[in-house]
Amino acid sequence: MYRTTLIDAVQCEEKADIVFLIDSSGSVQETSAENWKLVLTFIGGIVNRLPVSRDEIRIGALEFSSDAITESILYLNNDLNKANLERTIGSMHHYGGNTNTAAALRMCRELMFHESKGHRAGVRSIAILLTDGISNVNSNATSSEARSLKQAGVQQFLTQ
């Protein structure tokens, strides 16, 4: 089986728009309060290894738990340099609650990959879903939302 890592996938590309969908549900910290920090550190490590800039790779982020959380959206047109982007993601708040993956996928498709929010036409679109488990809110819609996102031209990676 051939497995592609995110770093491998974008190293060959000159440009990409990448959005992290971050599970902020209560179960993330169930086994350890440090898990949330590990998730944010993992994202920071990816961001650090990529050529982040307005002209190369743009980074966005969306948190979700019982619903997609609009208060903490980081759009692709955020104009943060790499250090500030890592700091902003590293300081995201853990919300708790349930896991509504369908809402995150839908909001990613409807809000994140649009020109008005910094998405560039003709540039590779990548969504990275970071979750600790199975969606337990509106779970029957998760597969159809993932298909809709794929049909919109967004390549998806799942990290569990």
Automatic annotation (TrEMBL):
It comes from the Eukaryota. InterPro entries: ECM_Assembly_Org (IPR050525), VWF_A (IPR002035), vWFA_dom_sf (IPR036465). SMART domains: VWA. SUPFAM superfamilies: vWA-like. Residues 17-160 form the VWFA domain. This is VWFA domain-containing protein. It comes from Ridgeia piscesae (Tubeworm).
